[in-house]
């Protein structure tokens, strides 16, 4: 492999890993915020326990999202300084706003939410989870603005060999970004909803004593996942109007559409190969569409079934199916991401900067070192975190450490001053 | 103004996160048993998320306001930055995971990850700063890097002395020449000053040529800064008292 292929593989592995955790974070944060609102408003103990149980799983997942996200942010300057030097004055603004408006607040307040449990006023504590959730959405929004610019550059001029931002409004209103944002948000809600429903179904299948707890959770999970599949499908459909002609040609896959798209690009930009890898684009796109239909059917059927209490208690085949569905949204979002990003190739900034020209001047040895180091550390950590997620999900609400006692109260007689 | 914004976030990171990195480095010295180490970690637990985000913000400011420098600094120090990130990941995971499974071996392993990750972070900061500040790279740079790492460790101790109680506090105050609120605060101010000085001197050596989106971004960021500081202030205020027992981690 050439250095640029290694750099692409490294970016793909870290971005893909990051996306897996982020999708669940966005979905679960929303669900936890909804449950905590109910708990705070009504003082209902079951909702408070639900907040702690799902909140704990959310935090385990979130931690992995942070560390993969750090590598994402720094990797742009590390491996792709050709891109940041060329286009950083435009899409860098979206990244700066993301870091400052969204992530800074999200992270600060998440720490306060976790460690301030039983220490802060309950309304303040509720406000924190909502701020964390909304800033997580804002984070996704600004990242999609940056990505949307790379897919469909708008609001810039070419000035002295680099890009300059002239119309911030146009960059934000970019349809390639706006439509994708809602599509991705829908996908995240599906992921969170199926996760909550699948874990609940596991406990119901095991004849848990926590019937009320997991019935409510299952209903909430499906109740969010079903409308989310409609939102995702709708915006996914609209997004075909904002797509690059080469990506659409690869998706259709017919020789004449491909030749047509290639000829169009040659006429615009001169000789070159402008087609994305067709198998990846079609494979990713088809997987995404088929699995979305599967999720739609399962969510719709579950929505009917969950209305009947004896079914929720005893229909074990359905419980098993819902638990088996937990990984499906993850596979779907990765497939959709492959479709979108492979379909952009060979461009880093569509029509302006090729991926091969976007790289930093990094040696092959350096690239091999970093990809091996990141890949091995992340694969170990991802396995451990998924194992922990499963372990804590299986153990149920009684084993939750989050908020289980007032923090900072002496657990032993005060030490001498 | 762009330079002020970059300095604000970079120096904020060095001072705030420098303390939690330093506590991680000195964890085996401060906490001799599992229970002690858990209490030492409670000194930084509520802060480390809000501290490390200053570096995320610094990287965001680089991406938005100094895109050229971002590439030069990161790609130009590729391997050091990669090690820095690995240290950061390992340290954070140590903090998150140490309490997830009961048992001494599990906690001990992840405590090791906290210590190794913190040292990795501090030493790679040392290497990065040596390159920027003194222009030296390679094995020779380990010498100044060790000095920087020692500064992080000392800063961690002075912070721990302000947060802990009893015997843990006495251990942390070993370099302060005696414990007692005012002495501890003075020593913390001293290490803070040293870190700021290193940061400012390194900053002065950087080619600080802002990009072209300052006219848009600078006002936005200036409006945001008070909000961000207020958010952090809420955390500092909530956890202003000395640690009295283990926290969630």
TrEMBL record, chain A:
Subcellular location: Cell membrane
Keywords: Cell membrane, Electron transport, Heme, Iron, Membrane, Metal-binding, Transmembrane, Transmembrane helix, Transport
PANTHER family assigned: CYTOCHROME BD UBIQUINOL OXIDASE SUBUNIT 1, CYTOCHROME D UBIQUINOL OXIDASE
Protein name (database record): Cytochrome ubiquinol oxidase subunit I
Keyword Nuclease carried by entry: no
UniProt topology in membrane: Multi-pass membrane protein
Main localization, broad class: membrane
UniProtKB/TrEMBL annotation, chain B:
Pfam family, one: Cyt_bd_oxida_II
InterPro entries assigned to the protein according to its UniProt record, in alphabetical order: Cyt-d_oxidase_su2
Keyword field: Cell membrane, Membrane, Transmembrane, Transmembrane helix
Protein name: Cytochrome d ubiquinol oxidase subunit II
Regions crossing the membrane: 6-30, 42-66, 78-97, 109-134, 140-164, 185-204, 216-239
Family: Belongs to the cytochrome ubiquinol oxidase subunit 2 family.
GO MF annotation, one: oxidoreductase activity, acting on diphenols and related substances as donors, oxygen as acceptor
Subcellular locations according to the entry: Cell membrane
Record membrane topology: Multi-pass membrane protein
An individual GO BP term: aerobic electron transport chain
GO cellular component, one term: cytochrome complex
Organism from which the protein derives: Nonomuraea turkmeniaca
